[in-house]
Amino acid sequence: MLYIHIKLKIMKKLSAIILFSLFALTANAQIEKGKVQVSGSFNISSIEVNGIETNRFDLTPQAGYFLSDNISLGVVLGYQSAGNSNAKDKLFSFGVFSRFYKPIADRFYFFAQPQIAFGTGETAAEADISAFSIGIRPGFSYFLSDKISMDMSVQGFNYENREEGANERTFTGFSLNPNTVNVGVSFLF
């Protein structure tokens, strides 16, 4: 019992130190004309349907330049892997985006990110994949300091045309599903 009590006291002190450190880092966000933003996001999900588990991994680094206060234009790269432990589809993509920020509170912003991308890859059955997508991702940014923010976005509206070998599929939709959440970190220079 004494061990648990001592451990709780240490955890409380450690939590207070971490919280104080985060507040010490905070300052007004500096998303203004001429700044460069480098960020990345990832998505890891696992869905089981009828006893078959499908895993998905997305990695999306991007860089943007602020054309004016709260508006940036940039490029985005992507890697996507989806499937099970035996076979996975893999897709590499390249695109351009713009991001429009709207302040909600001090250091807290809503953003909309229209984006267009092209992709190429291979299915688990070794068929070629060709993809085109256009969409708008809504999200939120919280600036931990004037140079670092935590970003969270969802898929929002998306149109995708995808050819896999002789098969062609088109997806259109709007999603705020938690399975489409991307979490990332942005750095401003």
Automatic annotation (TrEMBL):
What keywords tag this UniProt record?
Answer: Signal
Q: Which domain of life is it from?
A: Bacteria
Keyword RNA-binding carried by entry:
no
> Does the record carry Ribonucleoprotein as a key word?
no
Positions of the Outer membrane protein beta-barrel domain: 16-189
Cleavable signal peptide: 1-29
Q: What is this protein called?
A: Outer membrane protein beta-barrel domain-containing protein
Organism this protein belongs to = Roseivirga spongicola
